[in-house]
Amino acid sequence: MAGGVFQCPPDFEAVAECDGSAAADAEVWLIKAPADFTPQSFNSHRFPLSGQKMQKVKDGGVKKYYHVVSLPCAPLHLRAFLQSSGDTEDKLVAAAPLGGVITLAEAYGDHTAMHSVPDQPPVSLPQGLKQRYCPFGAVAPTIGKVKRGDSQLSESAKKPKKAKKRR
Question: Structural domain boundaries of the chain?
Fold first, then answer.
């Protein structure tokens, strides 16, 4: 930098300030996708510009499932350079600023079927330990013991009360 003015190196061509005139009405999004991704398989599909979606597509006759996550980003001063279609020369023109990021990740398996969640087995205490805390409304477990006031017991199972001797 001589005298405060930038001098372009001899191998480079000087370019004026980018104004985004390549496609002023277009929005540019960065798409992160797997290596074997084919963009043509997503031609007729729509995605939310903020959020996620599970998308089923046909790629060469094979059904594939993709997790699609879209995140808009704050306006950045980063711009992509695209080939200008009007000129015959290979010139690059600055595109509009990035609008966000779309991430595609391939999902495996059938996601349309309902999957049940197995029930948890009831909590059991190890042999020899007794429960010291009883949550509100819970009934303490009784193993092999029967409460005295149970109305379902037969009369023969009840123990007779012993009378105390008075002296």
Answer: 28-107
